[in-house]
Specification:
The complex is a heterodimer of chains A (about 350) and B (about 325). Chain A has about 350 residues and is an all-alpha fold. In chain A, about 75% of the residues lie in helices and about 0% in strands. Chain A has a domain at about 20-265: ABC transporter involved in vitamin B12 uptake, BtuC, CATH 1.10.3470. Chain B has one domain (about 5-260). Chain B is globular and about 60 Å long.
Amino acid sequence: MFYREAGDFKTTYSADNQTFPIKIDRVGYYVALVVAFLIIPFMINDYWANAILMPFLIYSIAAIGLNILVGYCGQVSLGTGGFMAVGAYACYKLMTSFPEVNIFFHVLLSGGVTAFVCILFGLPSLRIKGFYLAVATLAAQFFLVWLFNRVPWFYNYSASGQINAPERTVFGVPVTGPNTEAWATYLFCLVFLVICAVIARNLTRGMAGRKWMAIRDMDIAAEIIGVNPLKAKLTAFGVSGFFIGISGALFFALYLGAVEVGEAFGITKSFLVLFMIIIGGLGSIFGSFAGAAFLVLLPVVLKVVGVDMLGWPTDIVAHLQLVIVGGLIVLFLILEPHGLAQLWRVAKQKLRLWPFPH
Amino acid sequence: MPEQLAFAMEVFLNGLMSGVLYALVALGFVLIYKASGIFNFAQGVMALFAAMTLVGVQNGQVPFAHLINAIFGTHVHTFGWNVPSVFALIFTVGVMILLAWAVQRFVFRHLVGQEPIILFMATIGLAYFLEGFADLMWNSEIKKLDFCLTANTCLPQGINIAIDEFTFNAFGYGFFIDNLDITATIVAIILVIALVAFSQYTKQGRAMRAVADDHQAALSVGISLNFIWVLVWSLAGFVALVAGIMWGAKSGVQFSLSLIALKALPVLMLGGFTSIPGAIVGGLIIGVGEKLFEFWVGPLVGGATENWFAYVLALVFLVFRPQGLFGEKIIERV
């Protein structure tokens, strides 16, 4: 009744090939865009921006990036934190070295730098598979964090070893530094998220995405039918690194403002993003959003319920959060290995048939 | 003998000792991986959990005291007694067996036949769960572990005087070797011999090897997979307990204990996932390698290379030999 292909006639190839072929999806997509761009910026305040919206936007970008690598191409990576750190430090170096260039390009360029680093660490994936690769990416995680900690050039020889985002403006409105307004940083991140999501969605629908999925499903078979594993794996690492680098740059420059690398981009960050895509759904762009939203909201909800309503000490709530996150992951893997995205797919299937299920 | 060389030898010996400790953790991984094909990421957290339980029982802490106090507004902390280490140890072994059963019953029984990577992620979830659970149960502050079998035979601490004197007389340079490391090495050797004997010469050990070889064939000759898996997880829990005691006595029982699992991963990669000797040799190589690298190259590049050296070494190694030193050759078919 609500969700129908029937009566939605396509008269051109481009209409048939569009990203959301079903009308209600399309309408929902545009409504979401309108709400995100035209309504939320007027209602946003600092609490909402800092606690929920900014982390959600930034982690969504990271989750999309990791999902391309893990969900679409099947190369498990535990190095996300390290790659985000590459994005952050690249952005910092670019911001301080070329202050006259717009920060928009800095963020894009730091994505490019991260893509390069990611490809470099992706090279062993041609020889190493599965768990071995997952552990090998840990090398990236620990090595990169150590590098940014120990080589003073990366943090411009600052005494504290921290990096601080200087103030930069877009169209005269400050987006980094101490004098930002919530709506400006929010919109800046949102623009990047939309760009990344559109790119990712279209890449995964096209030739590149199909090659990745062929590699994921069985790499030897894919090789036999003519997919070049070198190209497919390294493009997946590159694209994934590009998105993760952007999210790292945004995380540093717009969200935190000041970063100490071991704390902000440690191994826990890698696991957090990995959990997002497991809970959200491996191999689904929508799942990346859902997983990011879920794991950003969960601590906030737990804090509101546990600390504010029940009055428990914060450390108990923090431990409970570990228990709940861990338990949920196991539960998800048992009940629905394909995550929230699969629940959404099932719901859509039900809606298609409702109210006449036969 | 020149001072520099003697010093390098001391570093080498210390590397060997810490390699033994890595191997202890890696052993637990290998046991589970061989028998069930599950790559158990939670091994380190199991060590943490075991050590925390041991200390908690020893000191007579009330489990979940913090939570109970928060909910009911009470002020309970300890029962007010101290349990001898031996009884605490037995109790902890019991807890680990219970844990093994629960993990098998509530998690992995439902995941039979899933892809290995799904199982791996489930163990990551399990690691988070256990970590939060252990913190809730015994609270997360750093605890000191004093483990005494009888009143006088505790785990030794500090420098070994005999070796110091002997080497001073022989080389003119006293080696600094921790008593605890020597104990750990001896314990590890005993543990490995015991495990090998168990798997070679007992009925259950044979069954375990059969399961590791082929699940279906084992099932068809009447071996209970469920029982074997609980057994294997219990064994891994026991190994985790031993590792937890050794590491806990070395650096205190605290969260960072669970990170040694991450250190055990490159050990496994070097040695191969399926080989017990591989875990030992891999552990020794990593232990010695990272200590010597820190000794020679560390000062040139800013130190603290121990954080990543093991991973990079394993990574470089794997590029040339993807199955590790002793791993089974990977044969892939379409």
